Amino acid sequence: MSFNSILDGLSEDVKSQLFERLLEILFKSKNVDKADPTHITKFLHLAKEGFLKSSECLKTMLYIAVSMEKEETLSILSEKAEFSRLHDAILS
Questions:
Q1: Which residues contact 55 (CB under 8 A, 6 or more apart)?
Q2: Rg of the chain on CA atoms, in Å
Q3: d(C-alpha 25, C-alpha 72), whole Å
Q4: 35: enclosing H helix or E strand
Q5: Cα-based distances in Å from 10 to 17, 34, 77, 92
Q6: Cβ-based neighbour number of residue 13 at 10 Å
Q7: Which of 8, 45, 67, 92 has the maximal Cβ count within 10 Å?
Q8: Which DSSP letter does residue 31 get?
């Protein structure tokens, strides 16, 4: 199952929780050099256009978070049952 279909199936409340948790990772990480500049540019563009909590933005944030802090991201995704399919998709 693709990230988009998993994210599209999440409720707005769960998307909001995921957004907050991923944002914490992005702001706290000191490994920004590990992130793909294309994903960072895409994230900034989506933020500028007002699509921060869209599935596309969450997918981009997941790519960035995994590249910067894979273990922490996987840990967050294993905390809630609603995130488990994202956790499994990253590991596959």
A1: 3, 4, 7, 8, 15
A2: 12
A3: 8
A4: none
A5: 11, 28, 13, 20
A6: 9
A7: 67
A8: -
Listed in order, strand segments (DSSP E) in the chain are none
Query: pLDDT tens-digit profile of 8-47?
Result: 999 999 999 999 999 999 999 999 999 999 999 999 999 9
pTM: 0.92
Write down the pLDDT at residue 30: 96
Residue located via tokens 């894979």:
70
pLDDT at 4: 84
Q: Is 30 helix (H, G, I), strand (E, B) or coil?
A: coil
Q: What angle do CA 22, 64, 66 make, to 5 degrees?
A: 80
**Residue 27, token pair as written in the block:** 């702001």
